[in-house]
Amino acid sequence: MQIHKFLSALALLLAIGAHLGAHAAEIKGVSNLNHSEPNIYTGGQPESFSEVADAGVKHVINLRPAAETPDIDESALVSENGMTYHHLPISGPGDLTRENVEKLDSLLAEIGDETVLVHCASSNRVGALAALRASWLQGKSDEDALAVGNTWGLTKMQPAVEQLLNQ
């Protein structure tokens, strides 16, 4: 009987994993795409906002400063595709502040259960803010916060995040 329960639980976990994996594959043209939470996608700069909208995304949070994409009017592209645009520019480690982490948290709370894509160029800044949010606002241990950050795309900014977590 115990083996049957174990196998049932394992089958459920595999089905959930396959479901999440299938959703992550739904948005083509987004590098480093993750489906971090049921209604949250994270990734790099989308190639096509129509693909993002077709995947059921209702909101886009862009962490890239306007200077990084001077030839793209992302706000217009997002709006033209029926989504709501939010901009929280994060240039680098100097912008990893509690204020910006709280702004991201507020945006996510405002969006609620609607589907969102949070992106920067590669998802590294997304992961950095997510790690700090997990620690500073959600009370997770540094290890767990870094795991959240890695799931959301944290890579090269990890040393800066670790330094901030140790302050």
Textual characterization of the structure:
With 167 residues, this protein is of the alpha/beta class. The chain has a single domain (2-165), classed as Alpha-Beta Complex (Protein-Tyrosine Phosphatase, Chain A), CATH 3.90.190.10. Helices cover 50% and strands 12% of the residues. It is built from 7 helices and 5 strands; from the N terminus they run αββαβαβαβααα. Strands 1-2-5-3-4 form a 5-stranded mixed sheet, with helices on both faces. β1 and β2 (40-43) form a beta hairpin. It is globular, with a radius of gyration of 17 Å. Mean pLDDT is 88; it is low at 4-25.
Determine the mean pLDDT. Answer: 88
Strand tally is: 5
Radius of gyration: 17 Å
Sheet with most strands? 5 strands, mixed
Looking at this protein, list some descriptive labels.
alpha/beta, five-stranded mixed sheet, Protein-Tyrosine Phosphatase, Chain A, 167 residues
Question: Could you give a short description of this structure?
Answer:
The chain is α/β, with parallel strands linked by helices and 167 residues long.
What's the topology here?
Elements: H1 2-24, E1 34-37, E2 40-43, H2 49-54, E3 59-62, H3 74-80, E4 84-87, H4 98-111, E5 116-119, H5 124-137, H6 142-152, H7 158-165
Parallel strand pairs: 2-5, 3-4, 3-5
Antiparallel strand pairs: 1-2
Helix pairs in contact: 4-5, 5-6, 5-7
